[in-house]
């Protein structure tokens, strides 16, 4: 493994772990706040137990997210010094503001965890809401920084110099809203399905069923609504990609030839030698329509892009198909949930219904990881789209592959610790009023 591949692999590994922690940290505080609100309203002790259990989960992911996020900030300077030398003054604003949001989130979480029976109940609830709002803002600010890499703004690039720097314009670049919207909805969908899936599994196993049933109902509403909204935000994001990063769109669709009435490609194996996609389903004209609202519009293909400026086609295409595929499965499950909620409430007591959601536990995060692969790999060979190549930004320091191996071991160890802590937390759930619901699961 050469140092360039090692640096990219290390960054990918760090982002892949951190994005899970950050998504859960953004979303679970809202689950916690809803359960807390129901407890304040009904005084049902089960809601209080759910709130406390989820708050401990939030604390676990907040701590691991803080560690992995700090590592990422150091890696930017360690692995990509040329990038940070020029980009730091331009897109540093969202990172600075993200630090502020992080500190507010930490303070609010401390108040919430240690405020039971010490604060006014309504103020205590507000601190939980602040944790969620701060987490969302923090996530949006980080995505704004990433969107700048895809749609650079806020500076003039003249003769290799970065002039007339405007950090606010860089932060609110042309792509920030689409990416922030898509990522925020993805976080709700992934976390909602993951949390709901764990609780559904516990109901099927008839363990603490009332607790898990009530928790399942809160989590799946967030996940289901987000899963239905996700294709809409995906459409907005894809149109922006077509406008600003046609090479990425062409790689996503494995669209080799520029043509009018371009087909939407589903599945398939791209062959870069023959410039064909084998075993694919092609829907004529649909890519043109989805991109430009015109079935006969011309869509730029990879044949119009110099080979040295093309992203890795197969990886981008497969990741895009995985993201869309799991997103559609989650949307179908969301519709099934709402059918059950409106017309078939007896399904909530059926084992097959709960097993569907238990099976879907990892689907959202698989889609998130695939989506970030599309975003990052699809931008290659650029670290700043059209301005700086990734190969020109990497550190000249030798031996990067050793740090990659070290960080891989650290993150694997960290993930095992998190899984163990969450498993122990689930086992510690108090067993209350289970008989009726446990007996109804069939």
How many domains comprise the coordinates?
1
State the share of residues found in helices, binned by percent.
over 70%
Write the H/E string, N to C. HHHHEEHHHHEEEHEHHHEEHHH
User: Which strand order do you get reading across the main beta sheet?
Assistant: 1-2
* Shape, per Cα inertia axes: globular
Low confidence ranges: 433-440
* Portion in beta strands: 5-15%
Q: Taking all residues together, what is the mean pLDDT?
A: 86
Q: Distance between the terminal alpha carbons, to the nearest Å? A: 53 Å
Got a strand count?
8
Supply the number of helical segments.
15
Please name the defining characteristics of this protein.
442 residues, mainly alpha, two-stranded antiparallel sheet, two-stranded antiparallel ribbon, 15 helices
Structure description:
It is a single chain. With 442 residues, this protein is mostly helical. The chain has one domain (3-258, 300-440). 71% of the residues lie in helices and 7% in strands. It has 15 helices and 8 strands. It has helices spanning 3-42, 45-79, 81-114, 121-150, 167-171, 176-204, 209-244, 246-253, 286-292, 313-342, 351-359, 363-377, 390-393, 400-427, 435-440; strands spanning 156-158, 161-163, 259-260, 264-271, 276-283, 298-299, 382-384, 388-389. The chain has a two-stranded antiparallel sheet with strand order 1-2. A two-stranded antiparallel ribbon has the order 3-6. The protein is globular and about 65 Å long. It starts with a helix and ends with a helix. Mean pLDDT is 86; it is low at 433-440.
């Amino acid at each position: 493994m050469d140092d360039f591949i090692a640096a990219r692999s290390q960054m990918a590994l760090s982002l892949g772990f951190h994005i899970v922690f950050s998504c859960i940290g953004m979303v679970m505080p809202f689950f916690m706040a809803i359960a807390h609100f129901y407890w304040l309203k009904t005084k049902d002790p089960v809601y209080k137990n759910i709130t406390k259990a989820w708050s401990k989960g939030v604390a676990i992911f907040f701590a691991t997210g803080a560690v992995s996020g700090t590592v990422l900030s150091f890696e930017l300077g360690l692995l990509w010094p040329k990038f940070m030398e020029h980009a730091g003054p331009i897109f540093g604003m969202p990172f600075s503001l993200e630090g502020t949001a992080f500190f507010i989130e930490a303070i609010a979480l401390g108040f919430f965890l240690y405020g039971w029976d010490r604060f006014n109940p309504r103020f205590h609830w507000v601190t939980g809401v602040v944790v969620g709002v701060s987490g969302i803002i923090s996530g949006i600010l980080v995505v704004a920084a990433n969107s700048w890499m895809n749609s650079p703004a806020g500076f003039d690039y003249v003769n290799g110099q970065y002039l007339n720097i405007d950090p606010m314009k860089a932060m609110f670049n042309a792509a920030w809203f689409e990416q922030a919207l898509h990522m925020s909805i993805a976080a709700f969908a992934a976390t909602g399905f993951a949390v709901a899936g764990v609780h559904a599994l516990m109901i099927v196993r008839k363990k603490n069923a009332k607790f898990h049933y009530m928790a399942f109902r809160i989590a799946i509403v967030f996940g289901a609504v987000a899963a239905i909204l996700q294709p809409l935000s995906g459409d907005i994001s894809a149109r922006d990609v077509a406008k600003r990063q046609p090479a990425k769109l062409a790689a996503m669709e494995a669209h080799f030839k520029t043509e009018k009435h371009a087909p939407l490609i589903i599945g398939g194996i791209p062959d870069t030698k023959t410039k064909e996609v084998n075993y694919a389903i092609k829907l004529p004209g649909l890519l043109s329509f989805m991109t430009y609202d015109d079935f006969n519009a011309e869509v730029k293909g990879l044949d119009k892009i110099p080979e040295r400026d093309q992203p890795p086609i197969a990886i981008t295409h497969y990741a895009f198909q995985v993201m869309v595929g799991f997103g559609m499965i989650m949307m179908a499950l969301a519709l099934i949930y709402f059918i059950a909620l409106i017309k078939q409430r007896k399904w909530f007591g059926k084992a097959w219904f709960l097993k569907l959601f238990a099976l879907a536990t990892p689907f959202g995060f698989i889609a998130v990881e695939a989506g970030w692969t599309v975003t990052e790999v699809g931008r290659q060979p650029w670290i700043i789209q059209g301005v700086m190549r990734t190969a020109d930004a990497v550190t000249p320091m030798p031996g990067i592959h050793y740090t990659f191996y070290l960080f891989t071991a650290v993150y694997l160890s960290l993930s095992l610790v998190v899984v163990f802590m969450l498993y122990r937390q689930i086992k510690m759930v108090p067993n209350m009023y289970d008989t009726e619901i446990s007996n109804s699961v069939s």
